[in-house]
Amino acid sequence: MAESSVRTAYDSLNGDFVPGINPPSAQISSYWFIFCEEELLVFPDNEKDNLGATTIPKAIKPPSIAPATFETFQFLGWYREAPCYAGTITQKCVLPAGARFDKLRPLFGVLPEPLFAIAGMASQILYWERTHRYCGQCGSRTQYIPGQRATRCTKCGLDFYPRITPAVLVAVTKGDSLLLAWSARWTKSVYSVIAGFVEPGETLEQCAAREVMEETSISVQSVRYFASQPWPFPSQLMVAFTAEYKNGTIHVDNNELNEAAWFTRDNLPELPAPLSLSRILIDCWKQHPG
Question: Which of the chain's ends, N or C, has fewer CB atoms near its CB within 10 Å?
Fold first, then answer.
């Protein structure tokens, strides 16, 4: 597979987004990524002709959505020289005409890709903030460390940084066939590559081989890095690999998988949505036979 051609929504930022910690001192027109109960506030994009075009509110101040109150704000950085802020509100309320709250994942392909990518970053940071208000060691409140994306326990001094959970995806090939599996967590029969979380003390490549063996009893070789993608649902970093079949017969772990099988390019089952790196990995295999 030719990973040089791989592109995800997060690559659309290129040099247009500069992460930052300290907000500007002056009030200037900014992007406001406002969440409520894991849903993002979006507005109609009146600057575009196509019906249903959606964007993130941009103004000097956050949108007026009284009686809701803002619980927190985080400065994210600069997108095309405009500051970007993430915030949460305590309750839903009456919104301006055309505005709505929506789950982040369905907004892929609806929001412009760069704004979707920044929204993913915002979602991850707000999730970390929401789940790390208290110290895991002594239970005391935490507070922000000036100039850092981090908090510190007010009692024992333990520091906390945004949590990122690495997970691997593995596309295993056997000749012209690809190993795909239907996860036991999915009620719908969607098939994807083998996936799993990295364990303490192992490399990413070791994790890739272990997950394939544990879930399907297949041994692999030639494990190679393919691409990576932040996955803000809520805080994963997906790292994709390719691998070649070595030996073994498929026997699935029924706690993890409903089914696993070898598929050729002309008999593929239902696949994951285009947003996911797993789908990008499968599509790349489809487009590069041999």
Answer: C
Is the predicted pLDDT of residue 281 greater than 60, yes or no? yes
Q: Report the pLDDT value the prediction gives residue 79, as an integer from 0 to 100.
A: 97
At which residue do the structure tokens 């017969």 appear?
Answer: 249
Q: What angle do CA 75, 128, 197 make, to 5 degrees?
A: 130
The reply to whether 186 and 111 lie within a common domain is: no
pLDDT exceeds 90 at position 253: yes
CATH code assigned at 52? 3.90.79
Give the closest residue to 123 by CA, choosing from 171, 58, 56, 23. 56
What CATH number does the domain containing 169 carry? Answer: 3.90.79.10
Residues 6+ apart with CB under 8 A from 173: 179, 242, 243, 244, 245, 285
Rounded Cα gap, residues 10 and 87, in angstroms: 21
Q: What angle do CA 230, 234, 237 make, to 5 degrees?
A: 25
Distance between CA atoms of residues 116 and 128, nearest Å: 19
